[in-house]
Design goal:
The chain is an alpha/beta fold. The protein is built from nine helices and 14 strands. The structure holds (5S)-5-amino-3-OXO-hexanoic acid and zinc ion.
Length: 276
């Protein structure tokens, strides 16, 4: 692996499905709040977003109208790559998860296997993975392959062989979920080494793993995801005041390593996203 100077794609994941306002008062919930947080993150160097929507009561939803509202408010003010979650919330039905694609994202997450997720079971049957991949391919949506453990890379190989996912694939290594691969440098190397085909990769580190893992990604030629979906702290015992604050730190780290933040159009090229 040679050192990369490729511009770094910083993806912001501002809300997620699990974090609550009681954990952090800074969590954006309404479409206006989420779009505002994305815009501020873009100003600090984010060029892509991973959106989860919430209802007015703060509960996760995959209502395409709410997702479209977030995307519309965002597009009015910034050109970041709009990604949406089909992982949604543990326990959501297949119909609720597939309908995310009705909101016409540019990128959508494709979770590549079932697993324990904290105290719950995150169900991603082969049938659901295939249905989501098929729909993404039909709609021209770039699949971001969410990899929580090394065995899920086998599913990626099968999707590629079946032509359900474009080659080169786009990987997001999610490390440090309780039930998934633990967050270590050795495990990141193992994930990279076991990719069935080469492809751009982002690292998502949960909780206190976010800072060291995204720093490793920046140093090793990967891309960085930060935001409250994965981590609400700036440092131990100190809540981050915004997603943009976490993005700004990621940008500073990447710049010190000789990698400037990608523009949104550079991010589309790097991630393999077709302009809609
Ligand atoms: N909320 C997690 C159960 C994704 O966005 O695709 C799943 C998740 C992954 O957040
Ligand atoms: Zn997510």
């Amino acid at each position: 692996m040679s050192w990369s100077t490729e511009p770094v794609v910083i993806t912001v994941a501002p809300t997620g499905a699990e974090v609550t306002r009681s954990q952090t008062p800074h969590l954006p919930i309404t479409p206006e709040e989420i779009a505002q947080e994305i815009v501020r993150s873009a100003e600090e160097g984010a060029s892509a977003v991973h959106v989860h929507a919430r209802n007015d009561d703060g509960r996760p939803t995959t209502d395409p109208e709410i997702l479209k509202r977030i995307a519309g408010l965002t597009r009015d003010r910034t050109d970041v790559v709009i990604g949406m979650s089909t992982g949604a919330e543990v326990g959501m039905s297949q119909r609720e998860r597939i309908r995310v694609l009705d909101a016409a994202p540019e990128v959508a997450s494709l979770n590549c296997g079932s697993m324990n997720f904290g105290d719950d079971v995150f169900d991603n049957s082969p049938r659901l993975i295939e249905a989501l991949a098929n729909r993404m391919r039909e709609d021209g949506v770039r699949a971001e392959l969410e990899i929580y453990d090394i065995g899920m890379l086998g599913a990626v190989g099968r999707l590629l062989d079946a032509g359900l996912v474009d080659d080169p694939p786009l990987y997001n290594f999610v490390m440090g979920v309780r039930g998934g691969i633990s967050a270590s440098a050795e495990n990141l190397l193992a994930l990279l080494h076991n990719r069935p085909r080469p492809g751009r990769w982002t690292v998502t580190g949960i909780g206190r793993n976010q800072l060291p893992l995204t720093t490793l990604a920046a140093a090793m030629g990967g891309h960085m995801r930060v935001g409250f979906e994965d981590n609400i702290y700036y440092r131990r015992g100190e809540l981050a005041t915004s997603n943009a604050q976490l993005v700004a730190r990621a940008r500073r780290i990447a710049e010190e390593l000789g990698r400037r933040p990608a523009t949104p159009d550079e991010a589309r090229r790097i991630l393999g996203v077709a302009r809609g």
